[in-house]
Amino acid sequence: MIPIVQVDVFTERVFGGNPAAVVLDAQGLSDSQLQAIATEMRVAGTACLTPATGGEAQWRLRWFSPTREIAYSGHTTLAAVHALIEAGRLRNDHVVFDTRSGRVDARVVADKAHRLIWLEPAVPALHPFTGQLGAVRDALGLAAAAGWAHPVTTPEHDLLIPVAGLDVLRAVTPNMAALGEVATHAGVRGVCLVSRETVEKGSATHCRFFAPHFGVPEDIVTGSVHSSIGVWLLAAGLLHADGPLAAFTAEQGDGLGRPGRLRVELHVQGGAVDRVRVGGSAVTVLSGSIAVPSA
What are the chain's domains? Predict the structure, then answer.
């Protein structure tokens, strides 16, 4: 048996936000064993941690969906930081992970009442979507994209599509099999629909994210996509900097009964983003042991 933790992310209350699993001691486990654990946990992301072997990183971090290893998962990374803190394995307020996508930094800001974990991914480069948007919309059941921004793809191969408002967003009922086929053909990991109309006053975006071909029909709260959403909004002239800082609150998960809230900050210099970070809270909901799968 090995220790495992389940964490609700981008929320301050249990049974909210997006659940992720964390394997704190993954050393010695094969790829197939790690995947078997992720498949058994059946959450959108499972973090697998081993001590780093060199450089500035303290930990080697890998991410698994229920069906495959993935290149990056924001909420799962935040869950890993939270689990390390709770286990007494985080030496200070800064941790560096070595991942298949390169270095990932996280910082912890805490007081007696709250703890906010900030992820600091590389600034994302966005590209116009050149695939068949009509086929994607048909699979989603989306009549039309909104015109406030152009559809783009992110470094994680997610497709961002603007929608007109919450009513449109709530009405989307994807054909998951068709969406998985279309997304696979287009080389897309996930499809993210973004509304600028929000549930709470003061938020800037509300989104839904679908990745059925990765074993995640609808993700509850998608940390990895929100750095790209921030850059996208800024490029469209919809996010304005207060001095060098542009910041906003993002919403996701309300329609699934698990509201999540994220803080997004972009540092802007000379009209360009030179740093981005995504922050949120997390709570432990389960701590125990899991059997080691057969090799």
Answer: 2-123+281-290 (3.10.310.10), 127-272 (3.10.310.10)
